[in-house]
């Protein structure tokens, strides 16, 4: 019997003996000396090899400039030296007793190195190297000492004890290592050359670069201050950590540009550019997968011990397995968080790189939309826009494609970067798991592997379908965003015409198609995610079936629950991998789109440097356009005034843009200077201050600036603005009048240093008086001396002063003459210029202007220079506080009401109960043998029930997914409908406070969030929340004492998560807010790309501006992702502690192995559940932020509420109202918003039916505001406006606007056809529409043709003729004629003409006036005009100034009174002619 006991104890004693031998070997200290020897060799080798290389680099490379140097406190190094001295003393004591001298010598080496490092400068390289050697050797010795002291304790029955000196040694050595871990790093960032120093904007270092290694790899403590601040208050961008220097956007663009030189596609270019980052991700992913199953391995051995604690085959002490329940998950967490830290950073880097590449390509490409002009053949071949629900709209502009690339595709591609971690970790994890399972189950595990291999293609099959469906979704999304962008830019016009229902219907039609495809995509996505559950559970089921049916091996608790734990881990891996596969499948389509954009877009032609000249040049808008300028040979005179004139649509703008290289040069030669200031016909302004728009990133010169303001007659205008020249101009200059925008655009060109100015019809938006002042000050002074001016205009004064005159007619240059005798030249051209001049010669005072024209200095900021980076317009207002949790309920109620929301909640609970029942039944199964000691009942009964449980869970999971997906789809549809209605019906004053980029962000990324991810995050949050509560309850029911520690650590975990959530939602808001400027920058650049590229080096400035905006977005995005790491590592710590506590309680309170296995399985799974729950709750709150942003927009107060409209409808307005057209304005006072000052004061007018009334005045006098007041587009603070005796405030808004015809200052056309632009509601007969088009003489090629018999269309425009977005296949003047046709279709009794002839030549103006007289007989016409020739035959003229009526009367009465009207006539220079017309 004694011999049997001795043999039984042999394994444990054998291992004890082996470990004693190994400890004795380490105790000798030879390995310690070996570490010292390696350290000395390393120092010597580095010194010998580095010295020649350093000398070579110093001689061959440019000097480096230190940017920032952060010194390290000597306290850390002194602490290490003290600790090493203590360790030397303790080892000497041990050495004197044991005769070992190697250990004291090894630690003394550390002590000496620590002292020697103080002999060098704090930031010197040698001091750093010595410090590294101290840390490395100390770490090695600590590992050796810990192994020697602690390893023997891991054997059951070991009697080894650690002495107090041994503990002190470990503490002192651990202190040295710990000090190294918590020591902040110092950074010495350097630039390549001295010149690079000027490009610095932020010398400070990011905390990420200077934090300690412990903080960087383990605790992420450098984010703690951010979390604490965010927990108690709302965060701003300044609260976030700085962007690390190695993530600077400009550096990213340079890196990928080098790779792009080899011509690779986007994905491969990104992979090659960021190969180091990807390698780090792969390394951490492999480490994560290798330690993934440490907890499962520990649980298996702990259960084996608890199943038979007296077994002599067990050698390792259960305390080791309990400790591994903590250290295993924590090691896995450290590796996993580092891999995700690298992966999310790569995600941000990819997105920033793609955005910059798209922008760079856009700056270099040539597109029709850059010039806003027409490509006839291409447009005529565009698909019929009545089929706009179809997926592809080939006529979509580059700007729209860019919007989709920026808002969707860049995000999709960046999300696919998770593939590197997910694929690597899944493969390695699967290999480890299969090996482990084979050790547990034997050959039945191979059956499970086979089943998994068979099911593996399913995600790929579904993902291919999903990728295809995503492409279809994106086509519909592109079309929706393009139409929204088009409508938003023209929303004032839409409101004035009461066309809001048309906009809503068109968008809803596209949205229905998009949502049909979204539903198919989401169902496919659901199938992809379901395969994750299916593969792991079915493969485990196959293993158990094979084990039970084909072997005699009973299913024991260690085997069963370890297999379940492994399968659970595999399941989470596959679920994550399937999610990533979904993103990759979407990214595949996005990559194709990005590659197509980068490869298909034609490069802008760069003409040779030289004087502005065309030699035998044939130019057209694109290769497919038939309209062109043929064989043009023009050499513009240098340092002189060159005037280009011609009829509407003759090709004048094409000529200017051809000089800039914005068109297609078919043959010939074009030369142009490198630095040109271009002013387009439609003013382009940035959403920033007036001053910044003028200075345009040049050095600020106060004297020059004031001169330019005076020349452009802006001094008085700026003095009336609230902040002077620092006033924000708004989106596309929405805060300014048309004339102010055009003069600021001109001022930008004048302020520039460009030697050549291309000015395209700059006087079209100015009144006569302002035109006179601007022309005299700019072109008849020395302001433009020595500069080459090419001016497109019909202005007679410019023709008189021209040194060179060019006439363009029908695509050919009919006259190109130059003569020193300007008067004779003018006479010659007056007869030959077909378009004629719109005004005659302006009065001219050569050098000394009248006293009113003397230059006045505008009060400006005293700053002498402008900060290049401080150029953004007003930022979006950031919401404060957390997202209300009540929004979850509001969102779920959108699923289809309370019944559908309740069904979703119940299904989520049933699914989790079914999931818990799987492990619960395993517990019952493995405990079945307890009834009869060593005999097992029939395993098949338990197997069948287990199979049914698994099948039931899968079916319930599918049903739950379907319920949530259907509900989320319904909620998305409802929210988009509400959003469209709210935005379209919002008042104009609301649009002045938001940018179009902000609105599009609601329809773009925020809508995408509701379409694609919000529902999934809600479902997963509910699943994990219910799973957490059920797991906690099940563990506590078996081990009640577990409730106390579990509750404590769960409380800590959730408190940490709550702090994180509060900070994270603030950071997320900053991320969203900082993306809007990027979106707006793309839109602004697209609109003004010709202006930007014309000026030398300005494209580089705008690229740099984008980099700065992206840097701010990256700063917020990286902080958002990194905060997740902060909370995850702490949640993992709490979860690992809970698992170890459960293991200890199971060990100390031994019970049934089946129940303990059930408890441990849930305890280990609890760690992942807690972490996932916190993450899901945060992600849900983050995505709810998008829902909240849309929800807030749906609550915008409309111009007229439905209740008000219904109330006004009861006033019984006659159906034919107005029948006469009498307009009465009584003591009218109006303002733009209720909280602003009046802009119209005491206006009185009584317009009789059929009377024609002209309203004139200088720019900004309130002319247009009076017209808008008649449309109730302003806030009437006092007085009345009556039409046929009816107060317009008593008329429903849409009814009022449908009753009034409007010809706006800038007619906007929408993509579609002629009929949809004239009569979107099909209220007019087709033949009548065709008659209107014929009457207006609009031809198909956009040119008004005329022969000897009068105006006869050459090729008549049909009602089904395609019209491009913005009407870019028509010239500006032709669009105005289209506006007249719209008014003719309405046949209104009241017509408002708001400078309707501003953009047309004299001939077209005369034609339009003839049409007005003939087609609007009996209608009351109120014409806002600045061309006095147009209105001299009107019945009455009202002269306005500063919002008041200056004078009113017939033209002859005002002429006799010699007041303001007479003064304006005098300034036209054609006073005698106009006086005759009046009389």
Automatic annotation (TrEMBL):
Domain of life from the UniProt record: Eukaryota
GO molecular function, one term: ATP binding
Coiled coil: none
GO BP terms: microtubule-based process
PROSITE patterns cross-referenced by the UniProt entry: ABC_TM1F, ABC_TRANSPORTER_1, ABC_TRANSPORTER_2, TUBULIN
Repeat listed as a keyword: yes
Spans traversing the lipid bilayer: 31-49, 70-93, 105-124, 162-182, 281-306, 318-335, 419-437, 443-462, 527-551, 891-921, 941-964, 1028-1055
Subcellular localization(s) per the UniProt record: Membrane
Record domain ABC transmembrane type-1: where: 280-577, 903-1181
Location of region: Disordered: 373-396, 841-869
InterPro entries: AAA+_ATPase, ABC1_TM_dom, ABC1_TM_sf, ABC_transporter-like_ATP-bd, ABC_transporter-like_CS, ABC_transporter_C-like, P-loop_NTPase, Tubulin_CS
Record's GO cellular component terms: cytoplasm; membrane; microtubule
Membrane disposition: Multi-pass membrane protein
Keywords: ATP-binding, Membrane, Nucleotide-binding, Repeat, Transmembrane, Transmembrane helix, Transport
UniProt xrefs under CDD domains: ABC_6TM_VMR1_D1_like (cd18596), ABC_6TM_VMR1_D2_like (cd18604), ABCC_MRP_domain2 (cd03244)
Domain ABC transporter, residue spans: 614-835, 1223-1467
Protein name stated in the entry: Uncharacterized protein
Organism in which the protein naturally occurs: Clonostachys byssicola
